[in-house]
Amino acid sequence: MAIVRASLRMELSPHQLAEVLDILSPLVSRTLAAPGCLECRLSRDLTDGSVLFEEWWAREEDFHERVLSGDFRTVLLTMDMAAKEPEFRFCLIAEIKGLKDLARLLGQEE
């Protein structure tokens, strides 16, 4: 079983930025309420001003259901508003580790 991380990064003109944020902002809470959604975020990169829409799904099947949804089609439609070619990707993650694992790697395990 793999966790899925999907992300869409877009550079937008100032006019398109406001419109895209208006479109994507309401999707965050609806996405979070969907079965299998672990996390959903909409943020801006402070270095280049791009918008990042990111989702985490518990299972590939949950992500597949998401891809077939009307809300996901709305996300994809915003890609046409990007000033440059948008970057969309999804990753299948077999395992996620945390601070205890980092401490072990650093040789600080207690």
In short:
Helices cover 39% and strands 27% of the residues. It is an alpha+beta fold and 110 residues long. The protein has one domain: 2-Layer Sandwich (Alpha-Beta Plaits), CATH 3.30.70.
Report on this model:
GO terms for molecular function: monooxygenase activity. Keywords: Monooxygenase, Oxidoreductase. The protein is an alpha+beta fold and 110 residues long. The protein has one domain: Alpha-Beta Plaits (2-Layer Sandwich), CATH 3.30.70. Helix content is 39%, strand content 27%. The protein contains four helices and four strands; from the N terminus they run E-H-E-E-H-H-E-H. The protein has helices spanning 14-32, 60-67, 70-78, 99-105; strands spanning 3-10, 37-44, 51-57, 87-93. Strands 2-3-1-4 form a four-stranded antiparallel sheet. Strand 2 and strand 3 form a beta hairpin. It is globular and about 50 Å long. The model has no long low-confidence stretch (mean pLDDT 94).
List keywords for this structure.
4 helices, 39% helix, Dimeric_a/b-barrel, 110 residues, Alpha-Beta Plaits, four-stranded antiparallel sheet, ABM_dom, 27% strand, alpha+beta
CATH architecture: 2-Layer Sandwich
Average pLDDT score: 94
CATH topology: Alpha-Beta Plaits
The general outline is globular
Total beta strand runs: 4
Structural class: alpha+beta
Radius of gyration over C-alpha positions, nearest whole angstrom: 16 Å
Which regions are unreliable across 5 or more consecutive residues at pLDDT < 50?
none
Q: Count of helices?
A: 4
CATH C-level name: Alpha Beta
InterPro entries: ABM_dom, Dimeric_a/b-barrel
Pfam family, one: ABM
Protein name: Antibiotic biosynthesis monooxygenase
GO molecular function, one term: monooxygenase activity
